[in-house]
Amino acid sequence: MEVEIGDLFDTLVVPAESDVSEPREVHRSSKYIKGKMNTAFRKLGLLAKLATADSAKEMRIVECASGVKHTFDYAYQNHVVHRIDALSFDHGNPSERVARARSFANLVEDFRKGPGNVGEPIVEAVIQVPTEGLFADIYIEAKKILDTVPSLQRTEVASDLDLEAFCRRTLDQMQL
After folding, report:
1. What 8-state DSSP symbol labels residue 134?
2. Alpha-carbon torsion 167, 169, 173, 176, what sign?
3. Which among 18, 58, 103, 157 is most buried, taking Cβ atoms within 10 Å?
4. Regarding predicted confidence, which is higher, 158 or 25?
């Protein structure tokens, strides 16, 4: 296959330059949100409590029906393990954002059918809403996809203050 130098430049260099030019605080990825959640949980003392809980690692890493293992953040709510995952629609092109919603919906469905899941495991998505208004219609489409996931709890966050408020509510709901 012949590849033009211009094609390589457009494929590799231009996206990398645009990523560098976008401040991380404006476009928040799922990893960014997870990192901020862990920082807030650590600051509130939640991670120390979870680290002392029995079989903490076993609850974080779950096996899906397909055999894929996925790591959730989690908390106890009324003595029930409540699994939490971060999901961001604040970066990427429109098709990537829709694909991210489908992928997450499939992951949750696969996890619910996995070994050892009796009943309906509690799963919550902490969703970073887009900070720019360019793709509001894509976000609406992504929310429709997530609506198809039965009993998925969703918390939308737009800023670090929203995320910290979520972490505080989670800490208040915990009963270890």
Report:
1. G
2. positive
3. 157
4. 158
